[in-house]
Design a protein that fits this description.
Elements: H1 12-22, E1 26-30, H2 34-46, E2 53-57, E3 60-62, E4 65-66, H3 76-81, H4 86-95, H5 109-114, E5 125-126, H6 129-140, H7 145-148, H8 158-164, H9 174-182, H10 194-206, H11 213-225, H12 229-241, H13 249-256, H14 258-266
Helix pairs in contact: 1-2, 4-6, 10-11, 10-14
Length: 267
């Protein structure tokens, strides 16, 4: 049977005709199609055309069971809107369900070289969006400046990108750090830190900015105030970036620059 009662075509014959017309040589699909593969091969034989090589993989499942094309959250547009890099999706799909580890590759070469149907298991593989987001962050941490330059804020330099890249989950987040580096951060200090930050502003004006100003700044403040550890570093980071955490301050401070740093520390 190749047609329904209403005259519409079943999947089998149109699929075979498409494959013949397009010159398809290999078909990879879910194991739920194993049962109809023999019928499709017979259709190719009946049409006098060579059948493609068929391979069947275990089905992907999500948190709610079998993945469906109707799940909008798994569409390419939705993933792109979430900041998922194409390389992250390729890396995930090339290794999911195999005995090989899912690894962050910016270029597909290593994935192509190690791709082997023998590494795929028969058990359903779980497609986890949280794991994909984690893999995406690891790939963002490897992206060179030239690959992302067109997507960064205008004027963002390679030094800016390399400074903030280790703390990004998506490329789009670089815009937030661009504002921190080259905008103006207003972060009112805690009452017991106000005096310390005024001392920090004076120290920032006294250090040599051509040679590791961050190390000089903290060493000078330790000597002048006796502060160490969190009591020293936390208010400095907060005043300079408006954040409790982020990239290394030794890298950020030269990019913020002397005058802006003194202004931020001085309130």
């Amino acid at each position: 049977m190749v047609r329904r009662e209403d005259g519409s075509w079943l999947y089998m014959l149109p699929s075979a005709l498409d494959d013949i017309e397009l010159g398809v040589t290999h078909v990879v699909r879910g194991e739920d199609h194993v049962a109809n593969t023999a019928l499709q091969v017979q259709m190719f034989e009946a049409l006098g055309a060579p059948a493609p090589a068929f391979a069947h993989e275990a089905l992907l499942v999500g948190a709610e069971g079998k993945l469906s094309k109707r799940l909008g959250s798994l569409g390419v547009e939705a993933l792109r809107a979430e900041g998922i890099e194409p390389a992250a999706l390729v890396a995930k799909l090339a290794r999911i369900g195999t005995s090989l580890p899912v690894e962050p590759f910016v270029e597909p070469g290593p994935l192509i070289e190690t791709f082997d149907f023998a590494t795929f298991g028969r058990a359903p593989a779980r497609f986890d969006l949280a794991e994909l987001a984690g893999l995406n962050a690891r790939i963002v941490h490897l992206l060179p400046y030239e690959k992302v330059r067109a997507r960064l804020p205008e004027g963002m330099s390679e030094a800016d990108w390399l400074a903030v890249r280790p703390n990004l989950r998506t490329v789009a987040e670089a815009a937030e750090w661009w504002d921190i580096l080259h905008g103006h951060v207003a972060a009112p200090p805690a009452a017991d830190d106000a005096g310390f930050l005024r001392e920090a502003a004076a120290a920032a004006a006294a250090v040599d900015w051509s040679a590791d100003p961050w190390r000089q700044l903290v060493d000078l403040l330790k000597a002048r105030t006796g502060r160490t550890g969190k009591a020293l570093f936390h208010p400095l980071r907060g005043a300079l970036t408006g954040r409790d955490s982020g990239p290394e301050m030794a890298v950020l401070l030269p990019l913020i620059g002397r005058e802006e740093a003194i202004a931020r520390l001085g309130g």
